[in-house]
Design brief:
12-stranded mixed sheet, 50 helices
């Protein structure tokens, strides 16, 4: 289907002049377009292409195939007609491997072998399949630098080779011959990469390396001559270091346009204003199809040209040029690229010209460098700068630039545009891993035409930005290949999509027809390009001139350009574009900048910052500025400024003023002295004044709530590092914190940090100072300036860290973006590279107790592909507001740059951020007059001149001063007028600060001298101070002002002087802040004006802009208002307060657009306090003595305010929260005011990006609120200005008090203002797309734009993907350190907006971190006194108190204490004992409430403590066995089976035994069936082991159980076994892989602690018998086997021993568990005891007189030493859940066994709220969730319909008896004298019932019950030992209650009958009950009855 409309002419063969138009048709269209353009009033006339249709040439297939065949023949012929020469390969070195498929190092290179191996590929390299003739069926894998490979069309491959071996890893092969020898190709002909590098390799979906597309060495158009040095993918060229060198972006530049392709031509539309005239858009331009990729080799059509680098070097490709000629590689580079490619590249000067530094290259690279033929050169005319007043800038484009000779010093050459062109060819490589792709890069012709379109759109005062052009290329390419992009994005795996930001494509592109989305479009041919470019340029007149139709070469075009430039033909031309389209050659181009303003801006941008400052210093020192100063001093008819100053009416004692010629030397001696007119000092004046300012307060020492929140976020990230499985930080091992704060080498920043540190109290809290700080000098040793002196202090800290392993050292790197230079690229004199040298050293990196915290407002340079900081370790400052809710209840509100931006969009008020048109016009005129002077010199001179004139005009000391107003700007007059009048309004002379930012130190010093001289001559020395802020020098303040500050701050020290800007609060002053960049200095709240009119516009990185604009960031004093109406200055726009950190909160919430824009209703000049910006009529009405206040016209709150635009969740300018580099979510709002004052010189964008805090109104006004807010808070207004005498309140009288409620005004250069207020295509501010920092580079020019929805974390990930550090960046070497994870594990990054309070946040973090470490070293220990102590019987006691071991004979004489004294059992039934009387009859405390009220004490862990799984000290690694640095221990599962007689069945247990613990067990054969545990002999004595196995039953405490006994055992050998339930086996094995696990059978999954102890005891006895049998077989006596085991609770944390001191009494101290056990095991008669234990620790136990005996008999708990041999006939009740140990001890005692408690030992139990056997869950079978079920529902009548519970029957029975026994045994309630008789078991019947335990066993030991009347009888599972005769021994009260419990109803009846209970007890059918269990759950039954 033909797309050619009727009206086209065709040649029979498809003519070479594709698109030839009929003459009449073209003339008609051109005429109509010119006529419409003349009638149009817009800048860009109506385009004319929309009606013209072009026909692309269609080469015949025969011609195409002929070209391919020619090319193939040329390739096969090896470019020569000679026969091929035999080639002898270099013999391999002796001993090397020569096997095919292997490299000489012996490593396998075959694809089949390496397909699944992980391969480490250097950036910029690609995996390529190498074809070996000896391996026809396989490929060899190698890595080749992509620059030496062709693209998809066979284009742009550098000659030469650069490759690495993927086998042995050897790198740096620069010759393919050497590489072929290394990989053993064994060739007979010359190795050629074209012949052997055959295929791209890529990973498939399974991750395997497979063969991909073939490398296209022979494209359709032959080899492509290299246009310039190819960019490394992901890097920029050497002169692109500041890729923003092309400077300024206006608010309506085509950065906002989208280039679509309609009918083959780009459609350019500005956003939001499309660049159209009427309804016709600029027509699109043909896009080349894949098979028409620009000019190619010569063909029969005559239109293709040879455009490749020659295959062999020939005469025209000389690698070197004459010394007097500027080569292409020695042209001027922009500043920050001087070390991009090599460290030796630097800016040089040849013949006085600033030239690009020559970039050293390898020989292969040098051979491909594109140099012009030796015969072509262009002579630069002499006197070019003098004749034309400018230095032309030549941008290399396509093709080699001719040599420049002659006056080369007055011409600048840049390859930045060429780099932009080249980088556009790398874009399709993004898609190459998907296989062959139809996506093609932009053609040369399309690039040139888009460049012309871009230049046409620029205004006369605008300078091109390379970012704009890159985005234009991006959009044009994207829209031409939209469908292919989508297709290639679809195969992405979820992992790749999550990691990479794909190139976003909109769903629809306006103006782009669907059929043109296909890749095969009509191409733009070289023949069409010149006249299309000229036609496009015609729309802007002579602003852009195109040389193309009659230019045969670039040399001819340059010569023609120079001739016309000298003739004055380019007076109104800013750009000249030269296009060369000669048949048979490639298309060539270059761009020459001829606009004066543009040339100056570009020339200065080619300086590096340091070079620019040196140039300024040179111009000042050489006297070149004298003419400029003299010119500025001339005031025309008013005379000379110095003369006027000399004639000023001054005191006779005032020295005569200095002339301007003497300023350079004499002004240095100007002193700050008191004015003779005022004999009293300010201190005396203030003291003499009765009035005081009640509003003054200094609050910089306060810690705000949001700072506390950030400190906690820092702490949580530190804890996350400690809790991670990497074990990189062991917080538990640290007991204190030490720190060092690193700050930039600024004296003010240093003192400011010291001030914050001293006043924060952190030093006292950390114990760093032994006493209160008497002076902040004590804090200076904790702060280090990063200069040469920092080395010593950091080395000292590192040495301390290595020697103090228990101290955690925090290195805080504040202002972290300042010095990120690599130490290897910096010399010691520069002072840079110290951070890399110190913080990135191996000593710091490998120290496990050093943590680094980077703190910055601009983190971009630390967020690259090679960053050392994990994205999970980034902490972002949160938003103060979320959905109109104040989250932190701040008394201040942050006002950042985004809020300043909002003021520019208010539409009807004076914005807080603006530019000064009067100043800009004067500076521009002087820049044209003095073309050789640096613009900073000119602008600073003009600015200081304006300030001097303003001082003269406002002071009133000069007659006729009103005529001086016209020599200064209105802005400057307003600033000076406000400065002088502010102090007069306050009784204590409070004023405000004016910040004057002058980066050059020399210019700042000159400005300080000049202003000081004028102030002195005008007699204003006591009115305000002028301060020179030099980073390297301390503050120098006049003594009179120091005295004034001391009175305000109430400072008594005589020698005190202010050292920080914060201490200048309320001082009227001008601060001249110098230095190349701000270094973190904080400014006081009295800052009112931030004058940035002379900051540099040459270096447009985001960090540079943010640093300067961040000076105006401000904390406003919050006004009282409803929390739902934060009002002006609030940050409403963050969707979630924590959204800025993805690790905190991922929730996104909606926004509402209620608040009006800031300052949207303010009059233009409502007060002299506001920087006046008024009409010409008001300029002459300012009084020379005092300003007149104008009446403010305030709109009424009821005025209609219509919300025009509300764009929710749009990103704020540059800093998301609350500054602009985080891209916060914001609202777009614009309100139409009923009364608007026009703003003449600050254009307002249509898109209003509302940021976090709304701008606060000026003091006398509150902006009207929207209707919803007006109802809540009516706006207040006053008709008087700030100087109104009627304002009587102190708040209105004090200018400072008013100022703290409003942010400062900011004055910017016009060029920066245009950039900052402009938006890019995504709706974000234009500067967000700038290079983030000079030390980083974009990975690709064709990166996606930042999204408006990105949070801080997402923006960090964006920069981490799309930026790489340059070689001189400290992170550039991080990727090559060999680690798979290049993140430093102990490195954090805190980012937040400028001036928001980050210092206070991290200082508070240090405090809470210290408290947390102390807290980690402490645990909550149960500290409870023993209960029922008064019930002790005054019987026989152990007489000797200092005896070591108990004597069995004496112990038998001691009475057994039946009373339970453990505080955890204060809610159980009292155990009856004759003669004992309890304190009370019991209480009604519920057991569930005990743990909530139990008393605990925080105690620091001793070195013998037991730990949980969070403890990871270096000593425990082998013990724990799961640290990744060590081998994970293998475990084996063993089954152990034994038969238990009582259960009548076999018990099958599982042992999980680590390999390292198998020696504790015996096996039938190695690795076979486990036979049992090995037990020592009783006679064994070893100080390095514990004989008793330790069993710890546990459930639900795999993390918190104290199973790490390494320290408690003091490292000795011991057998520790964890007894776990089957369903918890896996999780315990995971957390404790090196521990032995005993897994109980599945039937015990729902059992209680009784079952665990039952199994342990039975297993131990069975094992004892087995061990005795083994001993007997071995001939040893069986009785000598050690029979004891330890039953330990999982919460035992520490152990203590009591020392009996005769003088001081008993003293308790911590001991190891080893010492305790070895002491108990060494007891001579230990085998006589059935059970031993120790008391529970209590802080008061030693003071009790009845606690002094060393041993006692009674109940034992928690930590037991059990003799399984003696206690073999007494078992634990496996069914019990509660009081099992009380029951077991009573039965053990009744069996006649000795029970001994070692009272000189105590065990501390840690409070663990998680898990444990006391955690009971009662739940129903229906819901399977815990429900609120009362104890009365635990039982039911048999066979009744009742809610069944999914809880064990035994537990239900025990809980029921505990809570309802007072109903079951009514006679027993609170009746100690008549207890309930419980036979053979103890069951808790609640605290109100007393239980008398008796045993039915023969020969048992029971209490005497003679004469005792029982109130009840409890028979629980009565066995055969209970007989009717036994029961007849007891007497019961009438009406006593009987309770018989059995397993089923049958056995229940049998028990009643067997015991003849019906004889004395009466039963009823209704007295039978069962537990509320279903039948399958085997409920328990019980029967109650009454005694007859």
């Amino acid at each position: 289907m033909s797309l050619c409309p009727p009206g086209w002419l065709k040649t029979p063969m498809g003519n070479s002049y594709a698109g030839q138009l009929r003459t009449t048709r073209f003339e008609e269209v051109l005429h109509n377009s010119i006529e419409a353009s003349l009638r149009s009033n817009i800048v860009v006339p109506r385009p004319i292409f929309s009606q013209l249709y072009l026909e692309a040439e269609q080469p015949l297939a025969a011609h195409t195939s002929r070209a391919e065949n020619d090319d193939e023949d040329e390739e096969d012929g090896s470019e020569s007609n000679s026969p091929p020469l035999l080639y002898q390969m270099k013999p391999p070195p002796e001993g090397c491997c020569t096997t095919d498929g292997f490299c000489q190092a012996g490593r396998d290179l075959r694809l089949s072998s390496l397909a699944s191996d992980p391969l480490d590929i250097l950036p910029g390299f690609m995996l390529v399949g190498l074809k070996s003739p000896s391996l026809p069926d396989n490929l060899l894998v190698c890595a080749v630098d992509h620059r030496f490979l062709p693209d998809e069309r066979g284009h742009n491959a550098l000659l030469g080779f650069s490759g690495n071996c993927m086998g042995c890893g050897e790198k740096g092969f620069r010759y393919f011959t050497d590489f072929a020898n290394h990989v053993n190709l064994k060739l007979s002909t010359q190795p050629k990469k074209q012949k052997h590098l055959k295929y791209h390799l890529h990973r498939n979906n399974q991750g395997a390396l497979v063969k991909g597309a073939a490398i296209c060495w022979r494209g359709h158009d032959g080899r492509i001559r290299q246009i310039g040095p190819r960019l490394l993918e992901g890097h920029v060229t050497s002169d692109e270091q500041s890729s923003n060198l092309l400077l300024l972006q206006p608010s309506h530049t085509p950065a906002n346009y989208t280039a679509s392709h309609t009918n083959g031509l780009p459609q350019i539309a500005d956003t939001p204003h499309p660049l159209t005239n009427g309804h016709n858009a600029i027509p699109p331009i043909p896009q080349p199809a894949m098979n028409h990729s620009g000019p190619g080799r010569p063909s029969t059509t005559g239109t293709q040209t040879n455009v490749g680098p020659p295959k062999k070097r020939h005469k025209g490709w000389s690698p070197e040029l004459a010394s007097n000629v500027v080569s292409e590689n020695t042209v001027k580079m922009p500043p920050s690229s001087s070390t991009l490619l090599t460290s030796t590249a630097h800016s040089s000067t040849t013949n006085g010209a600033r030239l690009d530094a020559a970039t050293p290259m390898s020989s292969s690279q040098r051979s491909s460098t594109t140099l012009s033929p030796s015969g072509l050169s262009v002579a630069v005319p002499d006197q070019l700068l003098r004749t034309c007043g400018l230095q032309p800038v030549i941008f290399k484009g396509h093709g080699p630039l001719p040599r420049l000779t002659g006056n080369v010093s007055e011409v600048l050459v840049s390859s930045l545009l060429q780099s932009c062109y080249l980088s556009s060819q790398t874009l399709p490589r993004v898609y190459q891993h998907y296989g062959p792709s139809p996506i093609q890069p932009l053609s040369t012709e399309m690039q040139i035409l888009l460049t012309v379109y871009y230049l046409v759109q620029l205004g006369p005062d605008q300078v091109p930005l390379i970012e704009d052009l890159e985005q234009i290329f991006m959009r044009s390419w994207r829209e031409s290949h939209l469908s292919e992009i989508r297709q290639n994005q679809q195969p992405q795996t979820p992992g790749s999509q999550g990691r990479h930001y794909g190139i976003e494509t909109p769903p629809t592109l306006p103006g782009l027809p669907q059929h043109l989305s296909l890749p095969y479009q009509q191409p733009l041919t070289p023949s069409q390009l010149p006249w299309l470019a000229q036609l496009a340029a015609s729309s802007c007149g002579v602003g852009v001139v195109v040389f193309g139709e009659h230019v045969g070469s670039l040399a001819q075009g340059l010569q023609l350009m120079f001739c016309k430039l000298l003739e004055g033909g380019f007076q109104n031309t800013n750009y000249v574009v030269i296009i060369v389209t000669v048949s048979g050659q490639e298309t060539q181009s270059c761009v020459i900048v001829t606009g004066k303003h543009q040339c100056r801006a570009l020339a200065e941008s080619m300086f590096s910052p340091s070079e620019g400052l040196r140039e300024i210093n040179h111009q000042l020192s050489s006297g070149e500025t004298q003419e400029l100063i003299q010119f500025c001093n001339s005031l025309g008819q008013e005379g000379d400024m110095d003369s006027l100053l000399d004639s000023a009416t001054l005191d006779s004692n005032e020295p005569s003023p200095l002339s301007s010629s003497q300023e350079s030397t004499d002004d240095k001696s100007v002193k700050k002295t008191h004015s003779p007119k005022d004999s009293h000092s300010p201190k005396e004046r203030v003291l003499a004044t009765k009035e005081t300012c009640s509003e003054y307060s200094v609050e910089w020492r306060e810690v705000r709530p949001i700072q506390l929140a950030v400190a906690r976020k820092l702490l949580s990230h530190v804890c996350a590092i400690a809790d991670s499985s990497t074990q990189n930080l062991d917080l538990v091992s640290f007991d204190r914190v030490n720190f060092l704060i690193l700050v930039p080498p600024s004296e003010v920043t240093f003192q400011q940090t010291v001030l914050h540190l001293w006043s924060s109290g952190v030093l006292q809290e950390l114990g760093s100072l032994d006493q209160e700080c008497a002076s902040q000098r004590d804090a200076e040793r904790f702060v280090v300036k990063m200069d040469q002196s920092a080395q010593v202090q950091i080395d000292t800290l590192i040495q301390e860290a290595h020697s103090n392993s228990y101290t955690l050292y925090i290195l805080i790197h504040d202002h972290a973006h300042w010095d990120i230079s690599s130490a290897s690229y910096c010399n010691s004199e520069s002072g840079l590279g110290l951070v890399d040298q110190l913080l990135n050293s191996r000593r710091v990196r490998d120290a496990p107790n050093i943590l680094i915290l980077h703190v910055t407002s601009f983190p971009f340079a630390l967020q690259t592909q090679f960053t050392r900081i994990s994205p999970y370790n980034e902490i972002h400052w949160p938003s103060s507001f979320s959905n109109d809710v104040d989250l932190y209840h701040e008394r201040t509100r942050y006002f950042g740059v985004s809020e300043l931006l909002d003021s520019t969009r208010s539409g009807g008020s004076l914005p807080l951020m603006r530019y000064d048109s009067s100043f800009e016009s004067m500076a521009a005129s002087l820049e044209e007059r003095f073309p050789k002077l640096h613009s900073a010199v000119i602008r600073t001179t003009v600015l200081i001149h304006h300030y001097c004139i303003a001082l003269m005009a406002v002071s009133g000391r000069l007659s006729g001063s009103h005529n001086l107003h016209k020599h200064s700007s209105v802005e400057t007059l307003g600033i000076v007028q406000s400065l002088l009048s502010a102090a007069q309004q306050c009784p204590t002379r409070h004023g405000h600060m004016v910040l004057l930012r002058i980066p050059s130190l020399a210019l700042a010093a000159w400005a300080h001298r000049r202003l000081s001289r004028v102030r002195k001559q005008l007699g204003l020395e006591e009115k305000f101070e002028i301060i020179l802020g030099n980073p390297g020098q301390p503050l120098n303040i006049g003594q009179s002002f120091v005295d004034q500050i001391k009175i305000w701050l109430k400072i008594q020290e005589a020698d005190w002087v202010p050292r920080t800007y914060l201490e200048l609060e309320a001082l009227p002053c001008i601060l001249i802040l110098s230095g190349a960049e701000p270094l973190g200095e904080s400014l006081p709240r009295s800052l009112k004006y931030c004058d940035l009119r002379v900051i540099s516009c040459s270096y447009l990185q985001r960090t540079t802009l943010e640093q300067e604009l961040g000076l105006a960031a401000y904390l406003l004093k919050a006004e009282s208002r409803s929390p739902h109406n934060p009002g002006p200055g609030s940050d409403l726009l963050e969707s979630d307060a924590e959204k800025l950190s993805s690790t905190d909160n991922e929730e996104e919430e909606g926004q509402d657009n209620e608040n009006s824009p800031p300052s949207s209703n303010l009059p233009v000049q409502s007060s002299p306090d506001i920087g006046a910006k008024s009409t010409a009529s008001t300029q002459n009405n300012i009084s020379p003595k005092a300003p007149k206040s104008t009446k403010a016209s305030t709109p009424s709150p009821s005025q209609t305010q219509t919300q025009l635009a509300a764009q929710s969740t749009s990103q704020a300018f540059l800093y998301p929260q609350p500054s602009f580099h985080h891209l916060s979510q914001s609202q777009s709002q614009t309100y139409v005011q009923a009364q608007q004052v026009p703003s003449q010189n600050h254009p307002v964008s249509q898109i209003n990006l509302q940021s976090y805090f709304h701008q606060v109104s000026h003091p006398q006004l509150q902006p009207p609120l929207p209707p919803a807010q007006s109802r809540r808070h009516p706006s207040k207004s006053t008709s008087s200005g700030s100087l109104s005498p009627r304002a009587s309140s102190p708040h209105l009288n004090c200018s400072w008090a008013r100022g703290v409620s409003r942010p400062p005004s900011v004055l910017l250069p016009r060029s920066l203002y245009d950039i900052i207020t402009a938006n890019d295509g995504s709706g974000l501010p234009r500067c967000t797309s700038f290079l983030p920092h000079m030390s980083v580079a974009w990975v690709s020019s064709f990166r996606p734009l930042l999204s408006k929805m990105m949070t801080c974390t997402e923006q960090s990930l964006y920069y981490r993907q799309w930026t790489v550090p340059r070689p001189y960046h400290m992170d550039s070497s991080n990727r090559t350190e060999g680690r798979s994870d290049n993140f430093h594990p102990r490195r954090l990054l805190l980012s937040g907006p400028p001036q928001v309070g980050k210092t206070g946040a991290y200082l508070h973090f240090l405090g809470i971190l210290s408290r947390m470490l102390i807290r980690l070293m402490e645990v909550d220990i149960y500290n409870e006194e023993e209960i029922n102590l008064n019930a002790r019987e005054d019987g026989v006691q152990y007489s000797t108190s200092n005896v070591l071991w108990p004597d069995p004979e004496i112990m038998k004489t001691l009475s057994f204490d039946y009373t339970v004294h453990d505080p955890k059992y204060d809610d159980i039934s009292f155990v009856y004992c004759p003669g004992y009387k309890p304190v009370s009859d019991g209480n009604t405390m519920r057991q569930e409430d005990v743990c909530l009220r139990r008393r605990t004490t925080r105690i620091k862990l001793s070195k013998y403590a037991a730990f949980n799984t969070y403890h990871h000290c270096e000593h425990c690694h082998l013990y724990l066995g799961f640290n990744p640095r060590y081998q994970i221990y293998e475990s084996s599962l063993h089954v152990f089976t034994f038969t238990h007689l009582r259960l009548g069945e076999e018990i099958q247990l599982y042992f999980i035994i680590p390999k390292s613990k198998e020696h504790y067990f015996s096996f039938n054969q190695p690795g076979g069936q486990v036979e049992g545990m090995r037990l020592p002999l009783s006679t064994d004595r070893s100080p390095d082991s514990i004989k008793s196995p330790i069993f710890t039953p546990t459930t639900g405490r795999h993390e918190h159980g104290l199973f790490n006994l390494y320290h408690a055992m003091d490292g000795v050998s011991h057998l520790h076994i964890l007894v776990v339930k089957e369903y918890e086996m896996a999780v315990y094995k995971k957390y404790w892989p090196n521990h032995i696990l005993l897994v109980m059978p599945a039937i015990f999954n729902a059992a209680g602690i009784g079952a665990a102890h039952f199994l342990i005891k039975e297993l131990s006895y069975h094992n004892l018998e087995l061990e005795r049998s083994r001993r007997l077989e071995g001939g040893a006596p069986a009785v000598d086997v050690w029979p004891f085991v330890i039953l330990a609770d999982d919460s035992c944390v520490m152990w203590n021993a009591v020392d009996l001191n005769v003088h001081t009494g008993p003293v308790e101290h911590a001991v190891s568990l080893k010492q305790v056990l070895q002491h108990m095991e060494a007891c001579p008669d230990l085998s006589h005891y059935g059970l031993c234990g120790m008391r529970k620790w209590s802080s008061r136990v030693l003071t009790a007189p009845n606690q002094r005996e060393p041993f006692s008999r009674g109940h034992l708990h928690d930590f037991l030493l059990l003799n399984v041999d003696r206690s073999q006939n007494v078992q634990y009740d496996q069914n019990r859940f509660t009081c099992h140990d009380v029951d077991f001890t009573l039965r053990l005692h009744s069996a006649g066994l000795l029970v001994c408690r070692f009272n000189n030992f105590s065990v501390m139990k840690k409070q663990i709220a998680i898990g444990g056997y006391r955690t009971f869950i009662i739940k129903t079978k229906m819901t399977d969730v815990p429900t609120s079920v009362g104890p009365s529902q635990y039982i039911c009548a048999p066979d009744s319909k009742h809610l069944f519970l999914a809880t064990p029957a035994q537990l239900l029975l025990e809980k029921y008896l505990q809570h309802t026994s007072y109903k079951l045994f009514p006679l027993s309630t609170k009746n100690y004298e008549h207890p309930v008789l419980s036979v053979d078991c103890y069951i808790n019947l609640g605290p109100e019932v007393t239980v008398c335990f008796v045993s039915s066993r023969p020969h048992s030991v029971n209490i005497c019950t003679k004469g005792l009347l029982f109130s009840g009888l409890l028979l629980c599972f009565a066995d055969t030992f209970v007989t009717p005769s036994f029961l007849k021994n007891f007497t019961f009260l009438k009406g006593a209650t009987l309770c018989v419990i059995s397993e089923d109803r049958s056995s229940l009846r049998q028990t009643v009958g067997r015991l003849e209970l019906e004889e004395e007890w009466r039963f009823r059918l209704s007295d039978e009950f069962q537990t509320a269990n279903a039948k399958e759950d085997r409920p328990l039954f019980f029967l109650t009855g009454k005694h007859i």
